[in-house]
Amino acid sequence: MKMWSGRFGQPLDADFERWQRSFPFDQRLLAQEVAASRVHGPALQKAGILSPSELKAVVEGLTQIAEKAAASPAFLADDSAEDVHHFVEKKLVELIGETGYKLHSGRSRNEQIATDLRLYVLHAIDQAREQIGELIAALLARAEQAGSAAMPAYTHLQRAEPVLVAHWLLAYVEMLFRDQERLADCRKRVNLCPLGSGAVAGATLALDRRGMAEQLGFDAPTNNSLDATTDRDFALEFVQVLLLLSLHLSRWAEELLLFSTQEYGFITLPEKYSTGSSAMPQKKNPDLLELARGKAGRIAGDFNALVLVLKGLPLAYNKDLQETQEPLFDAAETMLSLLPLVTGWMKEVDFNYTRMQEAAQSGSLNAWTAATYLAERGVPFRLAHEKVGNAVRLCLEKHCELQELSLEELRQFSPEFEQDIYARLSVESVLALHDVHGGTAPARVRQAIAEGNRRLTAMREVAHAHA
User: Fold this and answer.
1) What contacts 334, CB < 8 A, 6 or more positions away?
2) So where are the chain's domains?
3) How far apart (Å, rounded) are the C-alpha atoms in residues 354 and 209?
4) pLDDT tens-place string over residues 2-57
5) How would CATH label the architecture of 367-425?
6) What is the model's pTM?
7) Residues belonging to the active site
């Protein structure tokens, strides 16, 4: 029996009925549907709709449904269930008889799906934050292992200045901390309970909305029934955060793809996360990195789908909102499957520190340091920049580095150069020169690693408080 069939005299067109069903994808909300129903039952008893024995039967029936679904996917095989709400009601009636129909008293599927989706997003946020924490921990560990190893930093994809490998890794740590902070902030707006909002105007029974919200772990009930049943801001915001996270992972993947090429040679791809070519026996392909880069496009598509579905919808519930579920599920499940693999890859990759160090010492990456040396001796920086640029041009002609020019050659560009310039041009001195908060000086990077571990511990403590 349909949940709405009384008013209709004709059956649905068979093709339309199959086409409009959401159960094939919203069945993943069964745990959330059962949880919300378990708190609705006691509220109905308080409102005088269910007797104590009926409530007991309802709760036991819901427990059996959850257990059967967890034990066997075949339990969810139902070609007639319209959606997860219809499925649970059908199974409940099969288990406990017509008393199962009473559970829908005072509520609407509009509030049910809004509640289920919020519970789903809350769980996904908590999972994502935990997984981001694992990835941050892996990056921090690799930063500690990198020690004093240097590499070139790039601007415009051209070598710019040397930095510590650890400093480069910490750049991604900062991105991920912002991502987890966005998730934590998003969680505050998700964590409101629509139960008791009814179809559009609020429940028709005197339900304890605050009590139901607290039992489900929500901070409070929603404030307006019209808004609560139609709001999908929380889904859009969550997927937007996942999109930013996916962009960060895509940038990470792109850099590592470049670094894995023979032209760079900075890393060796881990075989556990790579595949070969069906035609070229010598190939080792960076599949995880390429797929991680590609997933950003997929999640961007999910975000755009949500935006376009929600654009221009009048209050309150419209069936269009059914179309917000699959992009939400896809974005969440895509990211939650990707993050552990990225973490595993990060733990396995081998860095070619020798090659990176050599690259950090070639291409006149110490030119800014040389200009700073002159500025410290009274040469206006703009003129110092010009003088060092002329010296670099001579290096290009001679196929050498700045530190390989003689003092006489350097002094033809600026008489302020003295013998101590050579000590200043070493990669160690260049790194140490950037001795500011957030800079790549070794002492600053060690502080940043320690601070990163402290922030990670604090993040995990907050996340565990929500668990």
Assistant:
1) 295, 298, 299, 302
2) 5-105, 110-358+456-466, 367-425
3) 64
4) 665 556 667 777 888 888 899 999 999 999 999 999 999 999 999 999 999 999 99
5) Orthogonal Bundle (1.10)
6) 0.94
7) 156, 277
